[in-house]
Design brief:
Residues 1-20 form the signal peptide. Keywords: Signal. The chain has helices at 2-15, 129-172, 282-289, 396-426; strands spanning 25-36, 41-46, 52-56, 61-73, 78-82, 88-89, 93-98, 101-106, 109-115, 125-128, 193-194, 198-203, 208-216, 219-220, 226-231, 237-245, 253-255, 261-264, 269-281, 300-307, 312-316, 324-335, 343-347, 356-362, 371-375, 385-390. By secondary structure, it is of the alpha+beta class. It folds into 2 domains: 20-234, no CATH class; 237-390, no CATH class. The strands form 3 sheets. Strands 16, 17, 18, 19, 20, 21, 22, 23, 24, 25 and 26 form an 11-stranded mixed β-sheet that branches. Strands 1, 2, 4, 5, 6, 9, 10, 11 and 12 form a 9-stranded antiparallel β-sheet that branches. Strands 3, 7, 8, 13, 14 and 15 form a 6-stranded mixed β-sheet that branches.
Length: 427
């Protein structure tokens, strides 16, 4: 009995719930803000241990220095900050130098980001100081006016629907047909957005290597020293595509580089969705928007921005054949009925919401068609071209012969040696 009790006592600590490991926190000064990524503005923070802030030229970036609690999380191998528990802005004069020469000394200023066509459509712009405050005030007035108009239009719409119901009920009781004029349609919401004002330092530098630090009471704050690397991104815009196979339309395959080819079966149809993208080296882009992410220098990265304006493609599937024009189409995907599993892609009908907006490329079924080309008109940024390899079905006899080759290679020498030995024995 005592032995059983001892075993239970030894097992008791193992049965208690394990405590979660609390990461060690420390006070640190980080760099945070909204940086230009070539299309819009991305929220970013640079941990205290990261010595270099990476930026892209072409537009302003807004950065600020914040004292907060910082901790390292081993599972993700990244540094995190607790801005809700502690956030104290560090203000001063931001001094930027290059090779020991002062380039600029910046004071903090309020700013907003204006998106005329919404965040997803890019074309954002930073406004600073008085312009920022005025733009945000005007935006709030516009939003309140738009809300009042929408409420008034919704009231008219509900009154119209109620009159229709009343007129229908009266008509069933023998009343004459009443003509009811419909109200104006509900106003469409505006995509325009102006962010809440915030305070930051305005960085608008040409490409190059710099150093920066905050100056407080005439002395640099050591925790705010960083190197500053600004990269020029002019001329990076390209046209890329996603290939949507007919049997796997939910998992498109990216074709980014011009050297990439599209493989298709004879008689099949695949769908192309074109996009505008910026091509970067990983070491140029990822340190800007995600400073803690591991990068591979020399590896290309394509960042999709928006759908391509190309509305037709030229498709040709033989050396001497004429090119066919394939228009951009609205497509609906429906699941096949019955026990079979699959999808059918057809043109979307009027009033239907399309599932794909793409170019439908049909591959000829002829046995002699081995290759083709898909391209858009013009040259330069909007140009697009991909070679198509038509994979013909393999011959069963040829496949069997190729499968037997290793066996024949093994049996051949043995048969030759045995035949030679028999001839020697007979002689």
């Amino acid at each position: 009995m005592w032995r059983t009790l001892a075993v239970l006592l030894l097992c008791l600590p193992a049965a208690t719930p394990a405590r979660a490991i609390e990461p060690e926190r420390k006070n640190a000064v980080i760099v945070t803000g909204r940086v230009w990524d070539g299309f819009g503005f991305k929220d970013m923070f640079l941990p205290s241990r990261s010595p270099t802030l990476h930026l892209l030229s072409g537009e302003d970036s807004a950065i600020s220095f914040v004292e907060t609690q910082e901790y390292y999380w081993p599972l993700s191998r990244q540094v995190y900050v607790d801005l809700e528990k502690k956030r104290q802005d560090v203000h001063g004069v931001l001094r930027i130098t290059q090779n020991g020469t002062i380039v600029a000394e910046l004071e903090p200023s309020p700013y907003v980001i204006v998106y005329p066509d919404g965040v997803l459509n890019g074309s954002g712009q930073l406004l600073w100081g008085v312009d920022a405050n005025e733009a945000h005030s005007a935006y709030q007035r516009e939003e309140r006016t738009a809300a009042r108009r929408y409420v008034a239009a919704a009231v008219q719409q509900r009154a119209y629907e109620r009159k229709l119901l009343e007129a229908g009920a009266a008509r069933l009781n023998g009343a004459p047909v009443e003509i009811i004029e419909p109200p104006d349609p509900l106003p469409k919401p505006s995509l325009r957005l102006v962010t809440e004002p915030a305070t930051a330092y305005r960085l608008a530098l040409s490409a190059g290597q710099y150093e920066m630090a905050l100056i407080v009471s005439g002395k640099p704050v050591s925790d705010t020293r960083r190197r500053l690397d600004v990269v020029d991104i002019a001329g990076r815009r390209v046209t890329v595509a996603e290939v949507v196979p007919e049997e796997r339309w939910t998992r498109p395959i990216a074709t980014n580089g011009e050297h990439m080819r599209i493989f298709a079966r004879p008689g099949s149809t695949f769908y192309l969705m074109l996009s505008q993208a910026d091509r970067f080296d990983e070491s140029e882009y990822l340190p800007v928007v995600s400073p803690q992410q591991d990068v591979v220098a020399g590896r290309s990265l394509w960042v999709r921005r928006m759908p391509s304006p190309v509305d037709s493609l030229a498709v040709r599937f033989s050396q001497n054949g004429d090119a066919q024009t394939v228009p951009l189409a609205r497509l609906k995907v429906t699941q096949t009925e019955g026990s079979g599993f699959g999808y059918q892609v057809r043109a979307a009908k009027t009033g239907e919401t399309e599932d794909l907006t793409a170019f439908a490329v049909s591959v000829p079924a002829g046995a002699g068609v081995l290759q083709g080309v898909v391209r858009s008109g013009g040259e330069g940024i909007g140009a697009f071209r991909r070679d198509v390899v038509v994979v013909q079905p393999r011959s069963d006899g040829l496949a069997l012969g190729l499968a037997l080759l290793p066996l024949l290679g093994w049996l051949g020498p043995k048969i030759i040696r045995r035949t030679a030995a028999s001839a020697v024995a007979d002689s």
